[in-house]
Amino acid sequence: MSSYVVYVVGAGLLLVVGVHGALTARHLVRLILALNVMSGGVFLALIAISARGAGSAAGPDPVPQALVLTGIVVAVSITAFVLALARRIHALSGRTSLSEEDLE
Amino acid sequence: MIVTMVLLPFLGGCLAFLLRRTAPFVAVLGAASVAATAAMLAVGVWRSGPRIYAIGGWGAPIGIELVADGLSAIMLLTSAVVVLAVSVYSIGYHEHDDSDAWHPGEGFWPLALILWGALNVLFLSADVFNLYVALELMTLAAVGLVVLSGGEAALMAAMRYALAAFAASMMYLLGVAILYGAYGRLDLDGLATVVSPEPAAFVAAALIGGALLLKTALFPLHFWLPRAHAAAPAPVSALLSSLVVTGSFYLFLRLWTGVFSTIAVPAAGQFVGALGAGAILWGSLQALRQQHLKVMIAYSTVAQVGYLFLPIPLLTSAATTPDGALLWGIDAWNGGIYHAISHALAKAAMFLAAGTIVHALGSDRIVGISGIARQLPITTYAFGIAGMTLIGLPPSGGFVAKWLLLSAAFASGQWWWAVVILAGGVLTAGYIFLVLGQELSLAGTDQPVELSKVPRSMEYAAFSLAVASLLLGLRVIEPIALLQAGLPFVEGG
């Protein structure tokens, strides 16, 4: 039960840090990192759900673990793509943040 | 048959990546055969009800099931028709100069086919996690397509789109985690029976709903859409504005009337409807202000997305009122989906027509297209007919959709949505006629502008989509009958 609490609290903290970062960061790499921290929080929440069954005879629930694996694959692909995009933006325009002037 | 709908586009996507030169033919062939399969599936669902396919023989709740009901079938058919037309169009659009240099067209075919495969998975999936994977695959392919034109504006737009989508996908996944934590299952049908009004369900609904609103770009979460859709190459804009937006709306509708139907309170429905109304007014006003054709059409998408969410408050109130489902729920449901499919066809036609004009003129300033109707009559025709559907003039599909929504709004006593629907129609007419007026204008035709040659296939692809959106208004009975197969809120539907 104690590890479950650690997971839940940890997931909550990571989520708060990630959301705060995503809302305040301007540099693209910081933004991407913040979103990754946020996704870490989500994955930990799923692990926490899996850990609830850890003490019982059935053992940890495997379904959330499978979900986390898929989630990690998705997050890694998006991160890789967005990082490549950020490099390309930097190479083309020398900018490291999203332009604000064209936002309506 | 269901598996073909998923396998063929992905297989085509891989082949298109490997074969490069013959990719366009792979795509058109694949699109044609999937369109035929979709039509067969639609007839099958219409005649004998929803179909279920358990992948690998593993059924719910652990395994993955693909389910085709009336709503899925009509969405599959619509997207197959759009993809077929866009493929034919793109052959002309991406014509090679036979050099060995890398060409944006080479990136277009694999990504477009994978995007389509992901959409088909989305329309067929029956559990919240498989839907998540489909949604992500669709988003990644869509962002990749936006980048294809390669300019700085496109990269920035793609970046904003990708980051917004990333944040939304994490919100969605957290919602799924909470659902699983509370109820221990992921399949839509099973969840619908166990979800009850309690904090966990409300938090999950808010997270998943918010994520989908962001992905559908409902006002005020539309900030990423206009630039992304306008900066992409024309065939891509057509796919994004007509299909990708519809895909995430489909998911919202499916979850709202399924999993979350027991906890969807009328206040939440009114809130979503109010956002939709805001989208219609704000998007249309912005569209009127634009000087570039593609940006204008992109803002028109922001406005039309608003219409997609107007049925939500009507459906919610129908579910909580005795006999509401029969009195106006079915009309609202049919109207919303009818709007989704006629908008998908018309918006694709409009972006393709705009692409033809840009292709010919080399610029998309609205003042510059003066008198283009003489040189490109078919394209102008396509633009005009698509515009009719968006405005909702009879006998187009848009007219049927608005008529159904209006009668649902009046039957439920929520007349304020009717006001929004009508006001939106007037504003839409404003920006459509602004463009048509320029196209048909005779001013400046003394010195005809130099136009680059446009392949006929491009003009006719846009035209046939526009005509399809018009025909939807002339043959209403079959699509509506198809939609009744597997209705979520009528027992034994």
Quick structural gist:
The complex is a heterodimer of chains A (104) and B (493). Chain A has 104 residues and is mainly α.
Question: Which labels suit this protein?
Answer:
heterodimer, A: 104 residues, mainly alpha, 3 helices, 76% helix, 0% strand, B: 493 residues, two-stranded antiparallel sheet, 2 strands, 2% strand
Q: Can you tell me about this structure?
A:
With 104 residues, chain A is mostly helical. In chain A, 76% of the residues lie in helices and 0% in strands. Chain B has 493 residues and is mainly alpha-helical. Chain B has 19 helices and 2 strands. In chain B, strands 1-2 form a two-stranded antiparallel sheet. In chain B, α5 packs antiparallel against α10 and α12 packs antiparallel against α17. The mean pLDDT of chain B is 86. Classes of the chains: A mainly alpha (104), B mainly alpha (493). At the A-B interface, α2 and α3 of A face α5 and α6 of B.
Q: How does the SSE layout of this entry go?
A:
The complex is a heterodimer of chains A (104) and B (493).
Chain A: H1 2-24, H2 28-51, H3 62-93
Helix pairs in contact in A: 1-2, 2-3
Chain B: H1 2-19, H2 23-48, E1 51-54, E2 65-68, H3 70-93, H4 104-124, H5 128-147, H6 152-183, H7 188-194, H8 199-216, H9 225-231, H10 234-257, H11 266-289, H12 293-309, H13 311-320, H14 324-361, H15 377-391, H16 397-411, H17 415-440, H18 456-474, H19 477-483
Antiparallel strand pairs in B: 1-2
Helix pairs in contact in B: 1-2, 1-4, 2-3, 3-4, 3-10, 3-14, 3-18, 3-19, 4-5, 4-10, 5-6, 5-10, 6-8, 6-9, 8-10, 9-10, 9-12, 10-12, 10-14, 11-12, 11-13, 11-17, 12-14, 12-17, 13-14, 14-15, 14-16, 14-18, 15-17, 15-18, 16-17, 16-18
